[in-house]
Amino acid sequence: MNNKTIFYLARHGQTEWNVAQRIQGQLDSPLTAQGKQQARSLAEQCRALNITQILTSPLGRAVQTADICGQVLQLSPIQIKGFEERHFGDWQGKYTYQVNTLSDYDEITSQITDCKPQQGESSKQLLTRFEGTLREELKNATQGISLIIIHGDILRCFMAQFVPNLTPNSASKGSVSTGYDYKNAELIALSYDHDSGTFSSL
Questions:
Q1: Domain limits at 159?
Q2: Which of the 8 DSSP states describes residue 133?
Q3: pLDDT tier, 170 (very low <50, low <70, confident <90, very high otherwise)
Q4: Kindly report the CA angle at 97 between 96 and 103, in degrees rounded to 5?
Q5: Tens digits of per-residue pLDDT, 101-154?
Q6: What is the CA radius of gyration of the chain?
Q7: Is 135 a domain residue?
Q8: Is 2 within a domain?
Q9: How far apart are CA 106 and CA 129, in angstroms?
Q10: Which of 92, 104, 149, 165 is most buried, by CB atoms within 10 Å?
Q11: pTM passes above 0.85
Q12: Residue 144 falls within a domain, yes or no?
């Protein structure tokens, strides 16, 4: 018996802070004109996918993207607590150049470890939060197909499990180096096996 649920992940559209290279985390900035167009293009891609529900991070940029998709697909997005972007603590609101010379910058932004900015969330904590929430939502949507609007660092961490030949970084025991930047409004197809509790990339 096939007990799998297909779902789609997508990052929100481009924001003003994306352009300015400011770290958003759980702060926010609105979509740019390009970001709104990206959201519309994402929705058009989804027309043929039989999407039955749109789930979104409660952060404004994701909600704005989900609302545009919802208008095209004639669905009302549902905000899900637990789908928020990683909390970057003291880094939030800063420009990338203000933190990218710090000794732990690469580990925090390109690996999956317990390392985190002051007052922030580690990538491992983020994964635990996101995957736990995702599994719960998919258990409740076994018969439908979900479009889920989330964020760049969630995608970086979650999708690392599907990157071929990913090996632990020798400089940080037990970690992996991901370093893949998921594009705004990029659509990713996956499935969840309810029996084994595992995810697969389609």
A1: 7-201
A2: H
A3: very low
A4: 90
A5: 999 999 999 999 999 999 999 999 999 999 999 999 999 887 899 999 999 999
A6: 17
A7: yes
A8: no
A9: 22
A10: 149
A11: yes
A12: yes
**What is the per-residue burial (b if ≥16 Cβ within 10 Å, else e) of 41-68?**
ebbebbeeeebebbbbbebbbbbbbbeb
Judge contact between 99 and 88, C-beta under 8 A: no
**Distance, C-alpha 111 to centroid of its chain:** 15
> Which of 147, 149, 134, 129 lies closest to 192 in space, CA to CA?
134
Residue 160 exposure: Cα atoms within 13 Å on the Cβ side: 23
Q: Strands 187-193, 198-201: parallel, antiparallel or unpaired by DSSP?
A: antiparallel
Percent of the chain's residues with pLDDT above 90: 85
Q: Which residue has tokens 């300015």?
A: 20
* Catalytic residue annotation: 12, 85
Q: Is residue 1 domain-resident? A: no
Tokens of 170: 């020798």
Residue 58 clears pLDDT 70, i.e. is over it: yes
